[in-house]
Amino acid sequence: MSLSNEEIARYSRHLIMPEVGMEGQLKLKSARVLCIGTGGLGAPIGLYLTAAGVGTIGLVDFDIVDASNLQRQVIHGTKDIGRKKLDSAADTMKDINPHVNVVKHEVALSSENAMAIVKDYDIVVDGTDNFPTRYLVNDACVLLGKPNVYGSIFRFEGQASVFATADGPCYRCLYPEPPPPGLVPSCAEGGVLGILPGLIGVVQATEVVKLILGKGDTLAGRLMLYDALNMKFREMRLRKSPDCPICGPNRTITELIDYHQFCGVPRQPEPVAAANDLEIDVVEVKRLIDSAHRFVLIDVREPHEYQICNIPAARLIPLGTLPKHVGDLDAGAEYVIHCKSGMRSAKACDLLRQSGFQRVRNMKGGILAWADKVDPRVPKY
Amino acid sequence: MAKILIPTPLRQFVNQQDAVEVSGANVETLLGALTTQYPDLRKNLFNDEGKLRSFVNVYLNDEDIRYLNKGQTEVKDSDTLSIVPSIAGGR
Q1: Fewer CB within 10 A of the end CB, N or C, for chain A?
Q2: Contact pairs from chain A to chain B, CB under 8 Å
Q3: How far is CA B9 from CA A156, A244, B18, B58, B82, in A?
Q4: Cβ contact (<8 Å) for A129 and B88?
């Protein structure tokens, strides 16, 4: 393998650095990196690895570009809304560097396909957004002996590390088990500062390049913590756990397992059918309001979301404060609960039912559905 | 008083503070004092048996207490305790 004159001109700033040089640039060119997810973390990872000249970059995604992605997923543009993320990301990457071979894997990574996909790559970068896939990526990397460059984000806070190197710890050494569903909010529920995945993704891309070059000290054995709000970087020592079920001396996991079951999340969304007494359609809620039917409509979103849009008939009680308000509410009254899309209100309904409230229904699809089907003037966020 | 750093997902349970100072001789008494002061935090840190949850790590300065003396790890006033739960966001 060698570099063309065009490539030599392109990578000039690398070639004149002793830490990279021609040898390092050829290592980059022959490297095969798998990027799981082309979202907030995947965007900067894809962009920088492409620009750096990583020869083969595999992308795993099955999502479509949505307007709400563009606040952080800088590999996609306004013109890409509605396109497959894979196509949009690949086009951007090809534009930055036509020498890079982009391989598209249009699948949801699963226990059935992960080994076959991961085995063809040297390094895996984890830019996923959920616990089942994170444990799946970890386990596949450990079983196949591929380094797993990890990054994860929440609101203003990020984590990064390098797992599953030859003697290094893995994700299960750090966190043996995932949190039960519902205890830790996702970015879709909790929000994320748009710039945050940029920084964490660039840290991941840096670690990938160092692993390929074999230079420097990687984050293997260290957990980097970043707090954007206070602009603080910290670092924790990370050890290979002697009790780790997949990379420890007494391993019990020797093949991929059912990660949805492991994380306690159902594989398919809960069936909605036959839920008439538990859920209510937005059109029906509108009819109840217009007919002056006696019921209480509660909005369990946060005050800053209420400011963006609201249903005037609704009373705002953020989900986190609901337990304190249960005592003030009439358990015999009829309730409809709504949030943005129906997730938090479902939790609120459960909480009220557990507190003895009999007539509680979840407004299906939340205020987003209200904007679609009842009042198009309501902005969607 | 040792300082306990509170991560973003748990700040809602401690009036949005990023750090809380409490008194105690070891990790167990410090976390006990913290959750007595902020009871809503308890179920996020401990399981029904009162054990630290397996997706929450606690570090004394930069060392994981699992590799020190766990709950009995001694804490000096000059030390910082960090609570670091797993987060999964990426999109």
Answers
A1: N
A2: 109
A3: 10, 26, 10, 15, 13
A4: yes
Q: What per-residue confidence (pLDDT) applies to A274?
A: 43
- In eight-state DSSP terms, residue A29 is H
Residues in contact with B2: Cβ distance below 8 Å, sequence separation at least 6, in sequence order: B21, B22, B23, B24, B30, B75, B76, B77, B78, B79, B80, B81
Distance separating alpha carbons of residues A160 and A235, to the nearest angstrom: 10
Interface test with B, best of A61, A125, A234 (most B CBs within 10 A): A234
| % of chain A beyond a pLDDT of 70 | 95
Question: What are the catalytic residues of A?
Answer: 187, 339
Could you give the residue ranges of the DSSP H alpha helices within chain A? 5-10, 12-15, 21-30, 42-52, 85-96, 114-118, 131-144, 171-174, 187-190, 196-213, 259-262, 282-290, 303-308, 322-325, 343-354, 366-373
Query: Is there a contact between A184 and B53 if contact means CB atoms under 8 Å apart?
Result: no
> Could you give the 3-state DSSP secondary structure of residue A117?
helix
Q: For residues A263 and A373, what is the distance between their CA atoms, to the nearest angstrom?
A: 34
**What CA–CA distances, in Å, run from A358 to A182, A194, A295, A350?**
23, 41, 13, 11
pLDDT at residue A139 above 60?
yes
Please work out, in degrees rounded to the nearest 5, the angle formed at the alpha carbon of residue A8 by the alpha carbons of A4 and A9: 120
Query: Is the minimum CB–CB distance between B55 and chain A shorter than 8 Å?
Result: yes
C-alpha A229/C-alpha A231 separation (Å) is 6
Please answer yes or no on whether A239 and B64 come within 8 Å at the CB atom. Answer: yes
Residue-wise pLDDT for A48-103, tens only, equals 999 999 999 999 999 999 999 999 999 999 999 999 999 999 999 999 999 999 99
Query: For residue A186, what pLDDT band results from cuts at 50, 70 and 90?
Result: low
pLDDT in tens, A238-280: 999 999 999 999 999 999 999 988 988 766 544 444 456 789 9
CA distance A154 to B89: 6
